Amino acid sequence: MTEFLTLRPRATPPDHPATRLDNYWLPFTPNRDFKREPRLFSRASGMYYFDPQGRPVIDGASGLFATAAGHARTEIADAVHRQLSELDFTPSFYRSHPLAFEAASRIAGLLPTGLDRVFFVNSGSEAVDSAMKIALAYHRARGEGRRTLFVSRERAYHGVNFGGVALSGLVNNRRAFANAGPDAVHMRHTWLAQNAFSRGQPEHGADLADDLLRLIELHGAETIAAVFVEPIAGSTGVLVPPKGYLERLRAICDRHGLLLVFDEVICGFGRTGKAFAAQSFGVRPDIITMAKAITNGAQPMGAVAVDRRIHDAVIDAAPDDAIEFFHGYTWSAHPAACAACIASLDIYERENLFARGEALAPIFETRLHALRDLPVVADIRNYGLLAGIDLKPADKPGQRGYAVQKALFDAGLHLKTTGDAAILAPALVAQPAHLDEIFDVLRRVLARQS
Ligand SMILES: Cc1ncc(COP(=O)(O)O)c(C=O)c1O
């Protein structure tokens, strides 16, 4: 809590542009309510945000699952500053720069063996849509161009671009954009009442993977390109895969020639105790998407890690001097993002953060499940430093979660809510005392809900 001592309240004059709230249209936010009662952060350090009045708000969600090494790491800020002063921008097509190759090889070093061809993008949503295109390009390169259907899951969140929306299993994210984009069909989600209050991987539900067999039977394996799952479905409220479930998906994909894609935008970079959830669960997908903690949240960046065999099939299908994959972004492998990525990976390694997160997880689990006695708590799920708490709904679905999220901010705790689920994902640098503070505030606020 030493951050309190360096606090400097910042006075904003009444006519300053920052006091005008009309122009900025916030994403995934009730804008009118927000602008009636804005809740802003103006500074961050370590485990804390500070509001414009200088009041600390402990961060129980790594911002939005991004700041694994804590906030405002000077090593990252310095690396970005240095990079922008030296080489601010390189065209990403036909040109590149050394840090792009270094970042790719550092990421490859963290991945399961052979999953080591890295395509850079600028967000999780772009990673997902790029992975979908890679899957299509792969099948086409092998003469299986009929494989254009994707399989996803109810309650899945794969970002907001049209590919990710097609995969989405969250109704609000689909409703307004119905049936635009690629074709996707959905397996059931893995939440089961009999698994309530499971610690770690639940016992029941491996057989839910057999939904994939039913979809194969209905649509034909020869029409399916890839199966996308979050190893732990994060944004929907943290659904941990039942024991044996991911293994079964892998076996079915292998039998039918389907690519298995793990969307690790939340799980990646130590959230589950290992670099990637693929390693925590011992299941090797063909493609992994990542973002968020790839730069410790300090620069927009995402990536798609691709099995060498998939990469080579796409590359080798094109003539030697031709573009092999007609896809990419102006800011793919932006120099500042690469600098932030390398500096973040340096911190993760130097401070042994994945192992530290893994060591903290049992303490986190114990403190988390101690909330079970609260009348408003309906279910608790967790794995690594990621947890979801289902709250009993109030009059309308989502009303409780929204009220709790505002009350928590006012009480000094930031976490994410989705509907009536509260989601925790503290930074890997958290100390047990930080967890005490997070859970004390949470208990106090939830105890007031009836
Ligand atoms: C699993 C998953 N995929 C994709 C995304 C989209 O990432 P972004 O918001 O960076 O586009 C998210 C964001 O939370 C996510 O959790």
TrEMBL record:
<keyword id="KW-0670">Pyruvate</keyword>
<keyword id="KW-0663">Pyridoxal phosphate</keyword>
<dbReference type="InterPro" id="IPR015421">
    <property type="entry name" value="PyrdxlP-dep_Trfase_major"/>
</dbReference>
<dbReference type="InterPro" id="IPR015424">
    <property type="entry name" value="PyrdxlP-dep_Trfase"/>
</dbReference>
<comment type="similarity">
    <text>Belongs to the class-III pyridoxal-phosphate-dependent aminotransferase family.</text>
</comment>
<keyword id="KW-0032">Aminotransferase</keyword>
<dbReference type="InterPro" id="IPR005814">
    <property type="entry name" value="Aminotrans_3"/>
</dbReference>
<keyword id="KW-0808">Transferase</keyword>
<dbReference type="InterPro" id="IPR049704">
    <property type="entry name" value="Aminotrans_3_PPA_site"/>
</dbReference>
<dbReference type="Pfam" id="PF00202">
    <property type="entry name" value="Aminotran_3"/>
</dbReference>
<protein>
    <submittedName>
        <fullName>Beta-alanine--pyruvate transaminase</fullName>
    </submittedName>
</protein>
<dbReference type="GO" id="GO:0008483">
    <property type="term" value="F:transaminase activity"/>
</dbReference>
<dbReference type="GO" id="GO:0030170">
    <property type="term" value="F:pyridoxal phosphate binding"/>
</dbReference>
<dbReference type="InterPro" id="IPR015422">
    <property type="entry name" value="PyrdxlP-dep_Trfase_small"/>
</dbReference>
